[in-house]
Design a protein that fits this description.
The chain is α/β, with parallel strands linked by helices and 137 residues long. It has 4 helices and 4 strands.
């Protein structure tokens, strides 16, 4: 599908607590991150945002101004909306369009994953077993 991960290296002492959890970036580092992300948005069709810091509001990674440079018909999925969201234009619980870019603000995406994963696993096991024990008529 051609997916690429964009970003840059942040020193561990700035981005990580001693216990390994993420910590909020200082404002100057957050601006650097936005500066790296901004030109990448001009050539993509889909962006999935999921940056979270335990106990903090989600960091703002994409501003409305940055969306203005995106291709019409692009999609942003803001997985972190339950903690404020990583995109300034995300509306919690709604799909909206800003400058011809679809922004998905579906709430609790991580909480819905177990249902679909369980169904997929059960479905795969069912068809595996059905194929394994085929009988002739």
């Amino acid at each position: 599908m051609g997916a690429k991960i964009g970003g840059f290296d942040v020193p561990d002492e700035i981005a990580q607590e001693k216990n390994g959890y993420a910590k909020a970036l200082p404002p100057d580092w957050l601006r650097k991150e936005q500066e790296v992300i901004s030109p990448l948005l001009k050539g993509v069709d889909a962006v999935i945002l999921c940056a979270l810091v335990p106990g903090e509001v989600a960091p703002l990674l994409i501003t409305r101004e940055m969306i203005l440079g995106m291709n019409p018909g692009s999609v942003i999925v803001d997985v972190s909306i339950d903690q404020g969201g990583n995109c300034e234009a995300t509306v919690p619980g709604e799909h909206t369009i800003f400058n011809d870019v679809l922004i998905c603000g579906t709430k609790n995406i991580p909480g819905s994953v177990p249902v679909h994963a369980t169904w997929l696993y059960a479905n795969n096991i069912f068809y595996f077993m059905e194929n394994l024990y085929k009988t002739e008529v």
